[in-house]
Amino acid sequence: MTDIRTRVQPSSTGMLDDMVQHIVARGQRRKAQQILLGVGLPAGLLAIWEISCWVGFVDVRFFPPPSKIIAAMVQLLLNPAESLRLGADILATLQRISFGYGIGAIFGTLTGAFMGIYAPFRFALAPLVYSTFPTPKIAILPLMMVIFGIGDGSKIALVALGVFYMCCINTLSGVLYANPIFNDVSKAFRIPFWTRLTRVILPSALPAIVVGLKLGLGQALILVVSSEFVSSNSGIGRFIWDAWQVLDISRMFLGLVVTCLIGALAVLFGNALERRLIPWAAR
Amino acid sequence: MRSEAAWSSLSRGKTASPSQDVDRNGLQPKTEDTSAVALRDIRKAFISRNGQIVEAVANVSLDVRQGEIIAIVGPSGCGKSTLLRILGDLDDEFSGEIVWNQDGANRSNSRLRSATVFQSDSTLPWMTVYQNLQLGLSSLKLDGSTLQGRIDRCLSLVGLSEFRSAYPHELSGGMRQRVAIARALAAEPEVLLMDEPLAALDAQTRLVMQQELARIWSEISSTVFYVTHDIGEALSLADRIVVMTARPGRIKQIITVPFANTSDVMTLRALPEFGELEVHLWRLLADEVGGTLRKGRLSND
Fold this sequence. Notes:
The complex is a heterodimer of chains A (283) and B (301). Chain A is mainly α. In chain A, 83% of the residues lie in helices and 0% in strands.
């Protein structure tokens, strides 16, 4: 009782301040908790791994302790020739992803939008798109190499194809399953076609379009790394594969860490895109 | 005062037609004899999911006069919304005829033939309030200042001037519905179509909005086609009430609302005639609803 009385300030604004402070403090606590758990789980897993190596639960020839891997990574990065090669590989991979992703995203989104808007276009393309969609894209790499050669062309084409499906299918469903009230508004106010396309149809499909764009990023990374495994002289996939072939486990892990970082970057990019394109969506 | 000037283009359109070449200073009857739109023998059927042919609207004929507020009431599923969708160009699969007043003065690039206010939230969430109204005018040929002036007027008419740059998700449900109403008003439609515009609102907001609609309509003297399931609302707002039968929807009775043209909804509701008419309408509707329920029970046996 007395506790409550001491917490209440004499003026009403004082009471509000008190409440605001509580809300802010609670927000800060949650944020701290989020960071602690988000960092804590990976750190804990690494610790378990480290301990397992010490007590001899795992074969250190294949799973060296994280401490050793990190030390080897640092050593490798400090070597100018090695870090230069890693940089070149990262660049090669990023280049393939950007070209392939750009092409696939543009064509996929446009195709999906037109399929949604024009029924004949949809009737013509839907069977083709849906029947080829489940094919593992990496299985088409040889075909792509026949068409585009064994250089970057075939890898970019493969990435573009994978991204195309994600964007096309998601955009199509976005247009088809948009709230029908928007369609009604367009008709009721006789909105001209171009205005309708750019200001009603595409924005209403945007949440689905962005989902396609985000899924496409993951797809692009999978396809670029796996095609680099199979046929390439450069790229992060090649880097990992080379390390595996000489059983340089620390090097292999370095490649994996870099791949994870590229993936994390892609997620950040996707989230930024989402905030930029659909600011009205609930945060 | 301000709103009179606001709707000058509308009044000009009307005075230009010979039959209404009179000043509208309140002494004139609100309802003109000129038809705004006539429905002739409208029928509508659709095929249900299990392949049955369902007749939704049967042989509806109705003359909507200029400046008149018509309310359509009827049991749910009687095709009243279907009728409104046909009038609003949202549904072109029907038989019968819709005759719009082809008066040359009313045919212009600055007004829509009809504009609809929908039952559910129909604001576009990616546009500000202002842009939502702008979109509704995109098929009209208006110069920049006319457009801006019209939007500003309509926003102040619904009391949302302060919120022109707000996004719909920042507004309450009632405010969003007012945006939709302002959007329809801004098109200065020859016939304003409203499909249970207040049904999704809570009881208090609904009452306030009824009052607001009565005020707005008295200011703009527009022709209104108003679908509702709320008898009190129909009585408070309409000049004529069209009662429809259960499916297939036919016109059961047309009631002319005899009240003096008061725009205070609360005063209206206190009139004894209001209560009498309300009971009469309830009875008419109860017959229809009861009939549907009985039929449903029989088919269940």
